[in-house]
Amino acid sequence: MSEVTILKIGGSVLTDKSKEGKLNRKEIARIAKEIASGDVRRLILIHGAGSFGHPIAKKFGLDIPGRQNYTGVTLTHEMVKDLNRAFVKELIENGIAAMPVHPMSCAISSKGRLNKMMTSQIELMIDNGVVPVIHGDVVMDLDWGVSILSGDQIVLHLAQRLNAKRVGVGTDVDGIMDDDGKVITSITPKTFSNIKPLLTTSKNIDVTGGMSGKVNELVKLAEGSIPSYVFNASKKGNVAAFLEDNVDFGTVIRSD
Ligand SMILES: Nc1ncnc2c1ncn2[C@@H]1O[C@H](COP(=O)(O)OP(=O)(O)OP(=O)(O)O)[C@@H](O)[C@H]1O
Ligand SMILES: [Mg+2]
Predict the structure, then answer these.
(1) pLDDT, tens only, 30-57
(2) What is the pTM of this model?
(3) Residue whose CA is closest, atom 17 of ligand 1?
């Protein structure tokens, strides 16, 4: 079995995170083109919720453990599906056999952490040359009733489960930055404690911890010896370069 590549595109790139429910249509089109120009065999795409998820989840208090506003849950899920639909449509228009996968229908969390996710359909998709497109979502939770599942957590889970060879996390900044705004080229579980204080959430409404939440997941991945790259997917050419295995930008998070 050839190896799996996981690429997450941040909701910060696909949407205007400062305006609720606003697509970045140009960016969606450009990124779909870059993906179509690359090697899409055994590729799993994941995307974040951006302004189709964070503001509405916040409005219904879904980031508060145990807040069981199920109408809000469904409305949030429907909205992130709208973003998923727009991205999948653009991928299909660029000739990619993309297929949506909605975590609400195939995953369960426990205290906000992904507990179970059916992946046999995802494996069958990649075995058959299909590119699954999975997204950050709201899912049923064994302890809290419902909780938010970030795209970053899905990256960790699937990369571990499918033993991914390459993991890329595209976002709206050049990588993980230090106090002076300089990109930190490499982070390991050992150096993470020094870097932790530099990581905050997003400048916009955010319910999954922004850069801090992301790096927490990716350090866990690195502990299991799967490296990942955080890079700027808003910069033309970076997504294509990642798919070509030609990344000399951003931050790599690795075991040592
Ligand atoms: N040290 C840091 N280096 C870089 N970015 C940081 C740092 N600390 C906080 N951030 C913020 O993290 C943001 C990226 O996280 P954010 O969750 O907004 O994006 P995303 O995960 O791509 O989007 P989504 O959550 O919708 O998928 C950056 O835009 C920046 O404002
Ligand atoms: Mg995020």
Answers:
(1) 999 999 999 999 999 999 999 999 999 9
(2) 0.98
(3) 210
